[in-house]
Design brief:
Shape: elongated
Strand content: 15-25%
Radius of gyration: 18 Å
Low-confidence stretches: none
Number of helices: 2
Pfam families: DUF5963
InterPro entries: DUF5963
Strand order of the largest sheet: 1-2-3
Largest sheet: 3 strands, antiparallel
Keywords: Membrane, Transmembrane, Transmembrane helix
Number of strands: 3
Distance between the termini: 19 Å
Number of domains: 1
Order of helices and strands: HEEEH
Helix content: 55-70%
Length: about 100
């Protein structure tokens, strides 16, 4: 029975981490669109810790965005793993089990 709970907890942390990372990335991209539009910038490159994951450009008077697939994947995966680690740390603190 304890193994089932561990698998369920880890599965929920991974799925939750994926969802939270996707939502945060969506918010970052949409807010950057607003910023680029308001500031009248012709080209903007979204970076996080030196990893480029999205580019916004003015093309024919309209904003156009392009995803850097490798960068977006890396950022999304790092966010998911970070949430997984935080969930596990929280579990260890609450359950008082460190090993």
């Amino acid at each position: 029975m304890p193994m089932r709970k561990t698998v369920l907890r880890l599965s929920l942390e991974i799925i939750g981490g994926m969802l939270v990372s996707a939502v945060l990335l969506s918010l970052i991209v949409s807010e950057t669109y607003s910023y680029v539009h308001a500031a009248g910038i012709a080209h903007y490159n979204l970076n996080l810790l030196g990893v480029s994951f999205f580019q916004i450009r003015h093309v024919a008077g309209h904003l156009s965005g392009q995803t850097n697939v490798q960068g977006m994947r890396d950022i999304w995966l790092a966010g998911t793993m970070m949430i997984l680690v935080l969930g596990e740390l929280r579990h260890r603190v609450v359950s008082h089990r460190w090993l």
